[in-house]
């Protein structure tokens, strides 16, 4: 499973792709189980250079009944900022935020590795 993420150009906010638009909450993310559909969404997102910076696909794993990013970096971005539990997206709480906070996956995301290989 994959999801599409980027940073919004106007304010640097971490955003996620959902049905043709960018949303701020990871809980609202569109999940892709088909590589072709994921790559098509990524291509469409990259055609919006005045909206977001560097959109890319991230790998997800199911844990506690919800899908969360495999990479620790992406979990931090989804919770952001993590300086205090009452700040940022993590302050909203909920099942997805709890799963992100308690995840213990150790694998790295293949998305970033593929991005490096393309350059």
TrEMBL record:
InterPro entries: DUF2849 (IPR021270)
Database matches in Pfam families: DUF2849
Protein name per UniProt: DUF2849 domain-containing protein
